[in-house]
Amino acid sequence: MSVAGTMYTSAAIAEAMAAIAFDADGLVPCIAQQHDSGEILMMAWMNRDAVAETMRTGRVCYWSRSRQALWRKGETSGHGQRLVDLRIDCDGDTLLALVDQAGVACHTGRRNCFFRALRDDALTEIAPVLVDPKTMYGG
Amino acid sequence: MSVAGTMYTSAAIAEAMAAIAFDADGLVPCIAQQHDSGEILMMAWMNRDAVAETMRTGRVCYWSRSRQALWRKGETSGHGQRLVDLRIDCDGDTLLALVDQAGVACHTGRRNCFFRALRDDALTEIAPVLVDPKTMYGG
């Protein structure tokens, strides 16, 4: 992978757009997986603009449903995701982005977002905080 | 993992239910990952009944949005998923099921659903069909 991540041509972006079944809100869920370790980092949503920007730049950009704005992962925190490969599932309604995550993916400062599991009947945090969230967002 | 998969108590199921943020349709997306290889198999949806059944039985059950019915993975095809561990993400709106997949996860007969990628500007199938779909569904 190049330092910039995998960047796609306009033709490739058009191919992807034609294959993606965006939902009624114009969104598609995208799973981010660390390309070498296989770790699932997070799941977030993309609209057409986010897919296009991600593919054009090689840097992963989501659509924030809460902020109703493009969410360039790492723009604030510095913990961005370089795109390695983009996959589209069988019915086109879910994306898989193989990425190279800088730092941590989760806003809680953990490497990935899936750090809660049931242990002895109790919801338990099974992954450590690696980065103080205050330092991630300049708080 | 036992042959039956990981089965949770009612107390654990109640803990999970309290932590999951089901959407306006009462659904939550669930990513299925092969527990040992890290392969992402598929993404599908669960409602409360599907989460409860999955956790109670140790066999993964989704909610089919197209059929509007519980979808006991493998019930028709024989290609089921035994639950190894269930994870809940930071904001409770996505689940990660670590599973042991019998056979293939995708209805196309491929091991996983994410078999389409852009190669030389063209959408390309990058994984082989391992099982004839006709044999999976008695077609």
UniProtKB/TrEMBL annotation, chains A, B:
Part of which pathway?
Answer: Amino-acid biosynthesis; L-histidine biosynthesis; L-histidine from 5-phospho-alpha-D-ribose 1-diphosphate: step 3/9; Amino-acid biosynthesis; L-histidine biosynthesis; L-histidine from 5-phospho-alpha-D-ribose 1-diphosphate: step 2/9
Which GO terms of the molecular function aspect are on file?
magnesium ion binding; phosphoribosyl-AMP cyclohydrolase activity; phosphoribosyl-ATP diphosphatase activity; zinc ion binding
**Keywords associated with the record:** Amino-acid biosynthesis, Cytoplasm, Histidine biosynthesis, Hydrolase, Magnesium, Metal-binding, Zinc
Q: Where does Mg(2+) bind?
A: 89, 91, 93
Q: Where Zn(2+) is bound, by residue?
A: 90, 106, 113
Major site of localization recorded for this protein: cytoplasm
Q: Name one GO cellular component term.
A: cytoplasm
Cofactor: binding details: Binds 1 zinc ion per subunit. Binds 1 Mg(2+) ion per subunit.
Role played: Catalyzes the hydrolysis of the adenine ring of phosphoribosyl-AMP.
Q: Its quaternary structure?
A: Homodimer.
User: Which NCBIfam families is this protein grouped with?
Assistant: PRK00051.1
The protein's name is Phosphoribosyl-AMP cyclohydrolase
Species of origin reads: Vineibacter terrae
Q: Gene behind this chain? A: hisI
